[in-house]
Amino acid sequence: MTTLSTTLAKRLEDPRLFRQYAYVNGKWTHGESGREEAVTDPATGEALGHIPLLEAEQITAAVDAAEAAFVHWRALRADERCERLLAWYDLIQANREDLATLMTLEQGKPLPDSRGEVQYGASFVRWFAEEGKRTYGETIPSPIPNASLGTIKEPVGIAALITPWNFPLAMITRKAAAALAAGCPVIVKPANETPFSALALAELAERAGIPEGIFNVVLGDPPEVSKILCAEPRIRALSFTGSTRVGRILMEQSAPTVKRLALELGGDAPFIVGPDMDPKEAALAAVAAKFQTAGQDCLAADRILVHESLHDEFVEHFAERMAALTVGNGLESEIDLGPLIHGQAVEKAAGIVDDAISKGATLVAGDQSQAPGANYFMPVLLTGITRDMRLWQEESFAPIAGITPYADDDEVIDLANDTEYGLAAYIYTHDIRRIWKLLRALEFGMVSVNSVKMTGPPVPFGGVKQSGLGREGGTCGIDEYLETKYYCLGAL
Ligand code: NAD
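Structure tokens predicted for NAD-dependent succinate-semialdehyde dehydrogenase:
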């Protein structure tokens, strides 16, 4: 058994929230072959602990456990499931500080952002606890003589949830709370970079009285585990948040068992600044929309499109605000940007900046010699971004801002839609006719006007095009885990 790292031991009020095992059928489980993987703090490179890599039979055992537990969980009344979920919500809130500390240690984001994510993640548990009581069916006027027609909603079955490292807690609760409220057991496969948030959630689920086999966390080699989960016919739904690249693989692997799929994939959000805007107000908003989670955010403002009449002033204000951002270890106070998740992310970011400069972009600000450590990337501002550059075409997932001028509404619509992604878009303008025209023309699942914040439990989160399928949150988020059964009662 590996020992609790000294950093974690010193920092957690409740060290039992730090688990280095998988969680299957209500039991903390080590790998059968002894294979392990280290989990490191991206800020320091220090090993925080280890996770076991489970064998194929152990993943199948999690499915067996979920199958057995499903019978009882689906038979509970919705208000009984609601009580368990509310107990889980209370425990997440009560342990917010420890959960935030674990998250900052494994993910790197500043502690206030981690606290915000715990709060955000918990809010989905409360929302879906209540939504589970409103999974209404319908009564259908009958065209068949003497018959009564209608629908009832039933849980789809076991759900596999595969989640990313950038939001290690909220991406789990946004899925799991909906599934559990609908009556489905879940098998969570978190990112190997950030497993400890998932395991702490499992510990709290157990304390909340969520029965064994209902909330499982499996760990292992990601392609190996995902292949087993996708091929498993007893798993009826797969909900994935991550890159479009991996989303495509999982979609293909799920085809033979025809699973219900929810895919929350990449984004490459345009941030449109209209000619009527105050350039300073718009620049401050754009900085906030770009640098959250050090740019490792599917909602990050990746393509900043500024009307040519205010381009230069906007760039000045953006650069001034960006210069005030602090970069450092997320455990320290007054930090705006933590490290990137690992060295490959830093290499990728540097490659994207070099590519843009080699194709004619201007480097306005961003000096990597100031980076406080190996996994850090200082914020970069580039102007003159064109469609042939990687920064335009790819999701950088790094603190690199690129600005492109445009002449009129038609041009900006064409620029904004020039992407395989369609997750979120931002519009900054007070011109109501322009707002409506852009809102209708933008090919994105979510459009936010004059607001950086756009998400929360009551809203449908999701994208179009290659940003994915399905919606999480809102009144429709639970539908991903429900089947509609139609009935026809003939003359009785
Ligand atoms: P990723 O696709 O590399 O990994 C996501 C999950 O898939 C992880 O659990 C990982 O272990 C697993 N995985 C990785 N390679 C795999 C493979 N070959 N086969 C099967 N599983 C595999 O994504 P990431 O780097 O963890 O996260 C960043 C991506 O997630 C970005 O593209 C971002 O836009 C996206 N994201 C989307 C949303 C959304 O709601 N749309 C939210 C957050 C992040």
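DSSP finds 15 helices and 20 strands in the chain.
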